[in-house]
Task: structure prediction
Amino acid sequence: LEAAQARAKEFSRAKMRMHREVQKDLKVKRQLMLDALAAMPEDLRKLAMEPDYAPLPLNRWLPTDTAPFEMMGEERAAEVADASPQDSIFKKKRKKRQKRQ
Result:
């Protein structure tokens, strides 16, 4: 029990150390950004401070859970396209097994 508590405390210390490093890194980056803004000429600083509401490009890459349909076989692509978001992997496998029988 004591060994587990010691490991838990060490884990907690390591996580706090990581958290502090991330916070320090973010603080440094923010300060560098503010310093860069302060070094800009006034007219450019005003432009840099305005929010950009331009829409994102529609052809940007988005991470997905499945490969693009072009990379799958026709049978697998149809299976994925027919599945609802609530279907789990286990349900899909069960359906596949039932189809075979």
In short: Residues 37 and 90 are 53 Å apart (CA to CA). The two ends are 51 Å apart (CA to CA). The mean pLDDT is 82.
